[in-house]
Design goal:
124 residues, mainly alpha, 6 helices, 0% strand
């Protein structure tokens, strides 16, 4: 089934709101383990989208990644990698998402070298 057939099917148009970019008020409870060092109840998925995307792509499960794809969409996740980035994200994860977005030649922000070596700059 091609893209046109997908949108022509009236049953497929009746999707949950999150598929269309309406961000839920709260994160699913299963994501609590990904946010071990912050007050989970205070996370706003819209306001804190960059943090949510960073944590889920680096520490989430397959189901968690599918959730952020449904909620934020490929375009928003791609723009996160292209425009924002995060020192929490490993080179391996960046390489994976570059392949997903076919963005091998795009310039993506990366943390300074000293930031990669340790989460605490005073530790060698």
């Amino acid at each position: 089934m091609g893209t046109a057939a997908h949108f022509d099917n009236p049953q497929r148009r009746q999707r949950p709101a999150t598929v269309w970019g309406v961000v839920p008020l709260r994160l699913p409870k299963r994501l609590k383990r990904v946010f071990w060092n912050v007050d989970f109840g205070r996370i706003d998925p819209a306001r804190d989208a960059d943090m949510v995307i960073a944590r889920v792509v680096e520490h989430g499960t397959h189901a968690d990644v599918l959730w952020i794809l449904r909620v934020y969409g490929r375009g928003r996740i791609h723009s996160f990698f292209r425009d924002v980035g995060s020192p929490e994200i490993t080179d391996r994860t960046v390489a994976f998402w570059r392949a997903v977005f076919r963005a091998e030649h795009e310039s993506w922000p990366r943390p300074p070298a000293w930031r990669k070596s340790s989460s605490a700059p005073w530790i060698d």
